[in-house]
Amino acid sequence: MSKGKKARILIVDDEIEIVRALRHGLVAHGYEVFAAYSGEKAIEALEQHRPDLILLDLKLPGLSGLDVCKHIRAQSNLPPIIVISVKDTEPDKVQALDVGADDYVSKPFGINEVLARMRVALRHAASIPLGIEPSVQIGPLQVNFALRHVSVDEQEIKLTPTEYDLLKVLIKNRGKVMTQQMLLTQVWGTDYDKHSHYLHVYIGHLRRKIEPDPVNPRFLHTIPGAGYRFSDEYEYSPTS
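Above: the chain's sequence. Below: its structure in token form.
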């Protein structure tokens, strides 16, 4: 999304009142808004409108919200997806994050909370890190920060925006122990410092994607009672 352009938001929910309330709040804050009232219509709207972010309900007629999320993530790591659902237990949230959602807001919600979550998700999708090399090689892992490209043994690894930002923070602090609160604050924001389940899910995602043996990780180490540390055992070198 270029600077100055309105972010395009797709709302997927079968409750007309919810869609109306979200549309009113988002338009008032300068967003361009589209709506779909079923999973199938969401897929059509995705192709038609090319949104920058999706607000997705889980309980939809026809194709479920989880299925919509799976479909989107099978095609691309973008756009960011924020689930908005009345299902608010931790297993529900973990399940949504596991299929590729970037965040989760429980109903009923306040528009300011939704706007704050959107800003975080859009920042993840657009950010380029400062203070580190454009591209680095760490053992078999190569990360091109300018292009947001990650590969292991020259095989491309697809990361969601949130997975990428978590990896970026860990690499930037390579060799340091990062507490759960530090990671949650730096990746998700200050409002997330108590959402430890987010971090557990995404560390698991990264390990499955970049570690040859996720049970015995060589990059992402758990420090019991403290947090996580990105290994400094491999040679770290900028690449062209």
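Residues 128-132 have pLDDT under 50 and may be disordered.
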